[in-house]
Amino acid sequence: MELRDFIVTPIVLFLVYALAYWIRPKVTDANTRKFFFPALTLKIIGALAVGFIYQFYYDGGDTFNYHTYGSRIIWEAFIDDPGTGLRLIFSDNTFKGDFFLLMSLY
User: Fold this and answer.
1) Do 52 and 89 belong together in one domain?
2) Which domain range does residue 7 map to?
3) Structure pTM?
4) How many domains does the structure of the chain reveal?
């Protein structure tokens, strides 16, 4: 965990709840409207709990490692060469030449 996590998380939560407040009339009816925000809050708490378990108890995992290392590699490849970044994002997971091209960046 870094300091930016404590800064970005409240901003993201505010945006999620603002979007949920805007979208709630479109996706609920009179019966489900009262459950919308408690269910959203429970889902967010559950997602954070799973994230904390993977980070602090297991010291990683596939999702944690992807967002820590894998997405950073794709982002850096995109910054170095947008064509390579787009090929990595939209590839069909065959890695014919992209994998070796990516490894040559490091």
Assistant:
1) no
2) 1-59
3) 0.63
4) 2
- Residues 87 and 58 sit within 8 Å (Cβ to Cβ): no
Show the beta-strand stretches assigned E in the chain. none
Residue 18, both tokens: 């603002």
Taking the CB of residue 102, how many other CB atoms lie within 10 A of it?
Answer: 19
DSSP letter (8 states) at residue 58: S
pLDDT digits (tens, 9 = 90+) for 39-90: 999 999 999 998 888 888 888 777 777 777 777 888 888 888 888 888 877 8
Quote the tokens at residue 80: 């170095």
CA atoms within 13 A of residue 26's CA, in its CB half-sphere: 5
What single-letter DSSP state applies at residue 18?
H
d(CA 40, CA 105): 41
